[in-house]
Amino acid sequence: MSIQKPRGTQDILPGVSEKWQYMEDKARDLCRRFNYKEIRTPIFEHTELYIRGVGETTDIVEKEMYTFMDKGDRSLTLRPEGTAGVVRAYVENKLHGETEINKLYYMGPMFRYERPMAGRYRQLHQFGIEAIGATDPSIDAEVIALGLSFYKEVGLKDVRVEVNSVGTPACREVYKAKLVEFFTPMKDLLCEDCQSRLLRNPMRILDCKKDVELVKGAPTILEYLDEESQTHFDKLLVYLTEMDIPYIVNPSLVRGLDYYTHTAFEYKADGIGAIDTIGGGGRYNGLVGSIGGNDQSGVGLGLGLERTLLILQAQEVELPIAQPLEIYLVAMGDEAEKVAVRLLFQLRQNGHIAEKDYVGRKMKAQLKSADRFNARYVAILGEDELQKGEIIVKTMETGQQVTYRLDEFVNRMKEEI
């Protein structure tokens, strides 16, 4: 019996990996223009980081983390999200002393033990950014704008931005009490998870996919914002309007992580069944302090690359990734093969996409191979050409052939291409 990939993972094969590279290149270019610098953190961290940072009552910590004991009897966890690790690195490496605001981005795999389905994997990939060190709501607007710009630049259509304020810890305590008051009479109707959250973290009930009907009519956080939170939210909406970012205020949006304060937002798009959230983020004043640093405010986002690709496919968006082979070298005979090896290496050093036969096929089979590669040119070197010090170059689209001197071939191809 052959060994297969673990459930909830996928092999990204040639032909698809180029689409990933395209999205990643777009993300890096956007971050360059918005002045975000790349940070790379470990794929596993101490489990305590996620318990303190993400929150004990979140689905991630309670149900989804891949946690294990190492040989030193230390509890480690494969990272389920990116923000906590970035903040840990920010604190540990004292990045707060380098600039007044740190603007960072990351890309890579995350791991969550979820029930696999379209758009939901146990190994998923995210592109994320974090801006640490500023309280101004204009940076919140910038983060939201960067995420929407990413979706537009990879070709995604009809992406919706939903925003909300989850306030400060102080006004959230008042709001949580109101939620407990609202949900207590219907406690027995709530799902098992929400019953356990009722007193511990009732805001998580608003995010439940099972109790959607019961949540209708619940009080909203916007009714209980203090002056600071309301002012921050009002300014955010003004800045989004100034940038022509279309948005919808969703008072029930709370996100699935406990570290958010003030701004919370999500990007929505149709095309993956019941799943419509393709990315999101928010502000996390207090997270840096909870992880052990001198507290700094921060705001960030995480965008799911698998979901982005699935919706691009659903919308039938063709990514401009085709890079046809430029030159295919056909060599006949041992002496010609030796020269072809040298020429192939020189072509590649000059930046050309070049290839040759490696299994000793006849000329007709090699020409068919060049055609399958969609090569622009075929360069033919046989015994006669070798004796004359020449090489034949054929343009595949027109069938036109020219002959070059061997010692001029590489430079002439550089001029042609």
From TrEMBL:
Where on this chain does L-histidine bind? Answer: 81-83, 112, 126, 130, 255, 259-260
Its GO biological process annotations read: histidyl-tRNA aminoacylation
Give all residue intervals belonging to the Aminoacyl-transfer RNA synthetases class-II family profile domain: 23-320
Give the main EC class.
ligase
Tell me where the transmembrane regions lie: none
**Assigned EC number:** 6.1.1.21
Q: Which UniProt keywords apply?
A: Aminoacyl-tRNA synthetase, ATP-binding, Cytoplasm, Ligase, Nucleotide-binding, Protein biosynthesis
Principal place where this protein is found?
cytoplasm
Highest rank taxon of the organism? Bacteria
Catalytic activity annotated for this protein?
tRNA(His) + L-histidine + ATP = L-histidyl-tRNA(His) + AMP + diphosphate + H(+)
Q: Name one Pfam family in it.
A: HGTP_anticodon
Where does the record say this protein resides?
Answer: Cytoplasm
- What one GO molecular function would you report for this record? ATP binding
Gene Ontology cellular-component terms listed: cytoplasm
**PROSITE patterns of this UniProt entry?**
AA_TRNA_LIGASE_II
The family database entries (NCBIfam families) matched by this protein are listed as: hisS
- Describe, as the record does, how this protein assembles with itself and its partners: Homodimer.
Tell me the protein family, please.
Belongs to the class-II aminoacyl-tRNA synthetase family.
What PANTHER family does the annotation carry? Answer: HISTIDINE--TRNA LIGASE, MITOCHONDRIAL-RELATED, HISTIDYL-TRNA SYNTHETASE
What protein does this entry describe?
Histidine--tRNA ligase
Protein's organism? Paenibacillus psychroresistens
